[in-house]
Amino acid sequence: MAANINRVVLVGNLTRDPELKHLASGTALCSLRIAVNTRRKDESGQWTDKPNYFDISVWGNQGESCAQYLAKGRPVAIDGRLEWREWEATDGSGKRQAVEIVADNVQFLGSRGDGEGGGGGGGGSYLPPQTGGQAGGSDADFPSTPTADDDIPF
């Protein structure tokens, strides 16, 4: 029997600034919305872009980093999974449902100049520095001056 697969990879631009909230447990939840264009030919044979919009949920420290460093217009890559939700409408009009993307990894693309702000730069994920007694690095782990080029094996 084949295993189930629920995987989504998207690259697009934020359509609004990230929205960060904290649950009663203290867990951070950042909501993003991205637009991903699909290129197609119209009736006249001209290429046009049709935008598709996706809601993204980013949990924990990664969500806090998204809220801090991303802004509307910024390009991002999302690796995650689809999740279906159902809830009762607050106005009593019945049940509501939605499919959203829960991000496992958010890559900040472009540079600080892309979009209307943000940062994180150059295609890498932002990993916040560790503080307190947590395991992880400190500034002492990285030399303040670059090492000599003759240390590179190629």
**Can you tell me the CATH architecture?**
Beta Barrel
Total discrete domains? 1
- The shape is globular
Q: What is the percent of helical residues?
A: under 10%
Under CATH at level 1, the class stands as Mainly Beta
Task: Work out the helix count.
Answer: 1
Distance between the termini: 46 Å
Mean pLDDT: 80
The CATH topology comes to OB fold (Dihydrolipoamide Acetyltransferase, E2P)
CA gyration radius, whole angstroms: 20 Å
**Poorly predicted spans:** 116-148
CATH superfamily: Nucleic acid-binding proteins
The succession of helices and strands, N to C, reads EEEEHEE
User: How many strand elements?
Assistant: 6
Structure commentary:
A hairpin with a 5-residue loop joins strand 3 (28-41) and strand 4. A 5-stranded mixed β-barrel has the order 1-3-4-6-5. Mean pLDDT is 80; it is low at 116-148. It has one domain (8-128): Nucleic acid-binding proteins (OB fold (Dihydrolipoamide Acetyltransferase, E2P), Beta Barrel), CATH 2.40.50.140. The protein is mainly beta and 154 residues long. The protein has one helix at 60-69, and strands at residues 8-14, 19-22, 28-41, 47-59, 75-88, 95-108.
